Amino acid sequence: MKDTFINRKYVITALLVLACLGLLIRLFIIQVVKNTYRLSADNNVLRYVTQYPARGLVYDRNGELIVYNQAAYDIMVVPSQTTKIDTSGFCDLLGISPDLFRREMRNALIYSRRAPSVFLKQISNETYARFQEKMFMYPGFYVQPRTLRKYSKPVGAHVLGYVSEVDDGVIRKNPYYKPGDYIGKSGIEEAYEKDLRGRRGVKIFLVDVFSRIKGSYAGGRMDTLAVQGSDVVTGLDLNLQAYGELLMKNKRGSIVAIEPKTGEVLTLVSTPDYDPALLVGRIRSDNYAMLSADTLKPLFNRALMASYPPGSTFKPINGLIGLQEKVITPSTLFECHNGYLFVACHSHPSPLSLVGAIGNSCNSYFCQTYRRVLENPYYNTISDAYIKWKSYLDEFGFGSKLGTDFVNELAGFIPTTDYFDKYYGKNRWKALTVISMAIGQGEVGTTPLQMANMTAAIANRGYYFTPHVVKSIGADHFIDKRFITRHHISIDSTNFEFIVQGMEASVNSGTSTIAALKDIIVCGKTGTAQNPHGKNHSVFIAFAPKDNPKIAIAVYVENAGFGATFAAPIASLMIEKYLRGEITNKAREKNMLELNLMH
User: Fold this and answer.
1) How far is it, in rounded angstroms, from Cα 6 to Cα 11?
2) CATH assignment of 45-234?
């Protein structure tokens, strides 16, 4: 029993010695080895100034600077460090009202007494200079440098996007962001946020009781450097983008142009639009509210998010499928007596072969072709034939998102057999039930981006690259592999040649002659998209030159009638501007520039 007591005494003594030794070691580390705890204790005389990195620059395909940065300054406050100050003098210095002062101080206290928060955002350079001189009079206040976006031209708002302060929702979802940080919203700014934003740093300063900086803490050894965001080079042609927006002024609609051999987006126009500078700085919130309330919907990106019936611009697809399914040949002739059954058509020579039918935009030809596709005896049912027809459209990217680097891309709509079964009953719908889809009407819905992509696939004779706006990122010129992967369409390339001939005929002698250019072979197709809410939309797709094409384009002008009236001449001007750098038909240009369809 005595031995047990002695053993317990030794164990307890040993534990006490170890505990004391542990405490001594911990105190030594805290007071001698580590400065971290002293840093916390000395927080009242240290200032942590976040070093916001310069956001990455944005260039066009020719090296023209599109988006850059300008200096801006926020006034920060640490409520616990503020003392009684001359509120009137402070407000006069910053040009603010006493009510604003009280409100912002109250918000700062709600956020934290000891942590810094933004008191006044983005003051001018002049205000910053005045405040720097007298900041010592206002302990607890200091200036936080940062940058704001600046634009070389007032264009490209929809494709570029904008930057705004993070909200609580963003902070909860992504721990990287802290109050006061900014994040890309829409367009390139959002899609490439991680590349553009860079990485924050911090500088720690010693300050005196008057809030004046006395030097770096610990010789700057605890500072971290900010890392600038990566620059991005886009496929955009800045001059072409500006020209497209000029042509579409006072019109509703969109222009999407793609370089066929790469999938790089040359221009993306959506009108009505706005100056991107409106969503920068302290005016952003008010301007965003104004733009959101505008009945013309300038924030709505029609190029990506508007779904239209493609109209006759869809006919080349049905011609391709008819050839591939061997229900027609290039020499197949169909009569047209101003229409087919209940589908009307305009007057033109008859009968026509495939090339002539595309050139003259014959509704009857493509209704009969589409009917043959769906009634093909090779398939057991109409539904089976329809599923095969839809599979070709899937390959072109219709009915789904293309997977571009644009945010908010709409999928469009190509109905499934289940869709028709629901409305008409299983096995109770026929080719004539859905015949309007032969000419791009009825249930078909496509975006201008999808139509430009389809045009690029035709220009390439059977393949396309996923459309993308950014062609390289940073010094390593990185680009996602999905943008350099070919998407092949299971239609023989020889069949595409007949469609190309038909689109050439449309411009040379058919419905698209207004789009013809001297010494440049343009291949195009007009379309008139039915609009149940008013006048039809004017649509045109084209690529040029015919061989080794450099540009594929889709133009939509809402409530403008026939495709040849407005969409085709605008597309022609865009093609010439890109390929030649100048316009030869000044009268046409003047007419389109002065045209106002917003009444």
Assistant:
1) 9
2) 3.90.1310.10
Query: How many Å apart are CA 340 and CA 333, to the nearest integer?
Result: 14
182-235 pLDDT, tens digit per residue, is: 999 999 999 999 999 999 888 888 877 666 677 888 888 888 888 999 999 999
Q: In the chain, what is the straight-line distance between the N-terminal and C-terminal CA atoms, in Å?
A: 107
- pLDDT tens per residue, range 311-335: 999 999 999 999 999 999 999 999 9
Number of C-beta neighbours around residue 464 at 10 A: 27
What letters, b where the CB count within 10 A reaches 16 and e where it falls short, cover 121-132?
A: bbbeeebbebbe
Name 300's Cβ contacts closer than 8 Å, sequence gap at least 6. Answer: 270, 306
The C-alpha atoms of residue 328 and residue 341 are separated, in whole angstroms, by 20
CB 317 within 8 A of CB 399: no
495: exposed, middle or buried (Cβ count in 10 Å: 0-12, 13-18, 19+): buried
Q: Helices 382-396 and 417-424, interaxial angle, to 10°?
A: 140
Cα angle 358-307-340, degrees, rounded to a multiple of 5: 35
Nearest to 76 by CA among 165, 147, 177, 179: 179
CA distances in angstroms from 386 to 151, 441, 599, listed in the order given: 49, 16, 42
pLDDT per position as a tens digit, 360-401 = 999 999 999 999 999 999 999 999 999 999 999 999 999 999
**What pTM does this model have?**
0.87
Q: Token pair for residue 591?
A: 């007419």
- Residue 507: count of CB within 10 angstroms of its CB: 26
Pick the CATH number of 238-276+300-594 from 1.20.1070.10, 2.40.30.130, 3.40.710.10, 1.25.10.10: 3.40.710.10
Q: Compute the distance between CA of residue 455 and CA of residue 477 in angstroms, rounded to an integer.
A: 28
**Residue 6 pLDDT:** 59
Sign of CA dihedral 510, 513, 518, 519: negative
Q: What is the dihedral of CA 351, 355, 356, 358, to 10 degrees?
A: 110
Q: Do 254 and 78 touch, CB atoms closer than 8 A?
A: no
Residue 153 corresponds to which tokens in the numbers above? 């031209």
Asked which of 8-12, 290-294, 565-569 is least confident by mean pLDDT, the reply is 8-12
